Amino acid sequence: MKTLIYLHGYNSSPHSHKAQLTTQYMGKHHPSVQCLLPQLSFAPAKAVEQMTALMNKVDNPVIIGSSLGGYYANFLVEQYGCKAVLVNPAVYPDRLLEDYLGAQTNDYTGETYTLTTQHMIELRALATPRMAEPEKRMLMIQTADETLDFSEATHFYQASRSIIEYGGNHSFIGYDQWLPAIADFLALSR
Q1: pLDDT the model gives residue 57
Q2: Apex 188 CA angle, 185 and 47, nearest 5
Q3: Do residues 62 and 82 lie in contact, with contact meaning Cβ atoms separated by under 8 Å?
Q4: pTM greater than 0.90 (yes/no)
Q5: CA 150, CA 62: separation in Å to the nearest integer?
Q6: Which residues contact 134 (CB under 8 A, 6 or more apart)?
Q7: Does residue 103 fall inside a structural domain?
């Protein structure tokens, strides 16, 4: 049995729209696939501990990662050799999140915390300068992403299968229409 792990983005949760669309689709079309949506810690080192523990206890994991979850997914592919779909993934999250240092609130969970420079160091420690198996990733990008520079991801993942849609936004408009292609890439029927 395969296990699909959905990794949400920064200040998000398993209750995000894409996460919910994913579980609904999998429940209807791939009911034998175990679908896990962990609530990741805001602290990268703790999030890695959570993800590593999860990866070590499931069989045949595959990943969908959105935004910061895409950055984490890329790291996990290097560590475990699994496949992943990266939806508008962060490539240099430490650069982006430097603008958010200080007090933060997760609107989904209500959690309050302080984002620090130590967290940026933890993010940089997860960087993958060169991918061993780029074909194990499928990139999904919309060019009008208001949060991330889409060109960073298209350049970094140029050797991976890529779906580039002009327009859209960071939430990836029409994500649900791509779920069959996502399931096919992750070989969920096999």
Answers
A1: 95
A2: 80
A3: yes
A4: yes
A5: 23
A6: 157, 159, 160
A7: yes
- pLDDT single digits (tens) 52-91: 999 999 989 999 999 999 999 999 999 999 999 999 999 9
Does residue 190 register a pLDDT over 80? no
Number of structural domains found in the chain = 1
Share of residues in the chain with pLDDT > 70 (%): 99
Domain that holds residue 8: 3-185
CA distance 134 to 29: 27
Beta-strand relationship, 102-105 and 112-115: antiparallel
Q: Encoding tokens for residue 61?
A: 């994991």
Q: Which two tokens stand for residue 163?
A: 């779906």
In a domain, 11, yes or no: yes
Helix (H) or strand (E) holding 163: strand 161-165
In a domain, 90, yes or no: yes
The residue among 186, 190, 180 whose CA lies nearest residue 83 is: 186
Indicate whether 31 belongs to any domain: yes
Residue 79's domain is classified under what CATH number?
A: 3.40.50.1820
Cα–Cα distance, 48 to 82 (Å, whole number): 16
